[in-house]
Every structure is written in C-alpha cells, then in structure tokens.
Amino acid sequence: MRWPLLSLALIVGIAYSQQHGQDKKEPSKREQTGTEKKPFIVKITPSPKTAAETKQEEEERNAKRRAEEFKQKTDADLAIFTEKVADYTKALFVVGAIQAAFICFQLLFIWRQEASTRTIERAYVKMSHNFPGLVRESALGPFSINMKVENFGNTPSETTDLVLQLFCTDKDELLPDIPHYAPENKNKPPLRAFLVAGEHFNYTVGKAFSVPVEVLEKVRIGERKLYLIGYVDYIDKFKRRHRAGYARLFEYHAATDANNLIFVTQKGYNYDRQRKKGEGSDWDEKIPS
User: Fold this and answer.
1) Which residue has better confidence, 78 or 223?
2) Which CATH number fits domain 125-274: 2.30.30, 2.60.40, 2.60.120, 1.20.120?
3) Global model pTM greater than 0.90
C-alpha cells in the first residue's frame, strides 16, 4: 500500500514541475508580441453603410463620371473648333491673296489704260515741207524752204524748237546711225507755237542754206548726196517732252513742178520719241498746268 502512494506522489510532483516551467516560459513569448519585430495586427471590421451613405457615394461617382465625360466632350469640341479655325484662317489667307492679286491686276490695268490713253490722246506734232521743197534762187543756190508744222494728235501741244540743216554724204554712203545735228545752228528759228488738235503753222527759212559750189556740182553729177535733216521739239498736254525727226533727200534733177525732197526711209531720222533729260532748250522752263 505504501508503494502506490509513493508512485502517485511522484507523478503529481512531476506534473506540477512541468506546469510551473511552462508558466515561466510564456512571459518571454508574450514579451515578443507587440514589439517592432512582431507588431500587433488589429483588423477593424467596417460597420455596415447606411442607405443615405450608399446613395451619396453613388451620386458622387455619377457626378465624377459626368464631369469626366463633359471634359472629354469639351476637349473634343475644342479640337474640332481649333481645326475649323485653322481651315477658316487658310481660307481667309487664300481669299486675301486672291483679293491682293485682283487689286494688283486692277492697278496694273488702270496704269496700262492710263498709259494707253495718254499714248492715244496725246499730241503728235510732225514737221513737213510745202511744195516743191528746196527752192534755189539760182543754179548754184542759196536755198530756201517753207516748212509746215502740224499737230496730228487729239490734244493740244506747245512747239518749243525747230532745227533744220543740210548734210552731205558720198553717193554710196548711208547716213550715220545717229543723226549728227549741229550743236549750234544759225538757222534755228526762235519760235513758240501753241497748237490745238489738227492745227498747223508754216515757217519759211529764206536763203539760209548755202552749199559750196564744188559740193553742189558733185551733187549735180551724182557723186554726192544732199540731205535736209532736222527735228521739232514740243510738249504735250500731259507735260511730256517729245521730239519728231525729219529727213529728206534732195533730188537735184527733179522737174520744176515736182517735189524735190524724197522721204528718207533709213532708221533713226523720221521718228517721234520722248526726249531724254537735257535734250532741247526748254528744260529750264516750268510747264504750266
């Protein structure tokens, strides 16, 4: 009976010691929980939402969606508007370029029309001789001539100078390409004449053309040629200065009742052109309006 009691006491002692040892180890485990190495994890279960909160969240989501859709539509509309503005700008540029070209064309047309009108409507003054041409006082000269200056244009003109001179060449020689007008001509008539359209005046140069006897003899036998050359200066209604050339070949053996001055067809002698600056004796004068 004693041995069973001792065995039971031994078992109780061993169980107590094991339980006491486990109690001593548990604090070290508890000390590790909740530290930086092993923090506590707390799960909070959300409380159920109310119907008002659910409705408010739904309205906020809908408002946000509508705002995003409106922004996208606005951006798309802005892109379309910008593209249309660019197209309109290009169209306006093209229209502006066409208008500018049209204005330039109109200005060019007006300028050409004005120039054409001036050319058509301006005065055209021409110098010619009256029959029979050069008149000899004797077989050897001197010569005289009666000239006619007429305005063939449509507007008035003012004649400011008239020059005539004799010029000799060999029988096979042409006139110079550029007329050699004498810088000082004693036969220069001091004249001023205002001519309306279709009007003319006559001017006689009497016994002013003297030709050496030996030269006139060579003209008679055909070894030399005798020319009468000159020009008339005038100003038209548009304040432009012009010069009209005159050139004729003297026909020594022409009949007394025939014209003895033959028209010269060589270029540069019978002409009408606008004068260069300084040509003529009227550049120092103010042209009246």
Assistant:
1) 223
2) 2.60.40
3) no
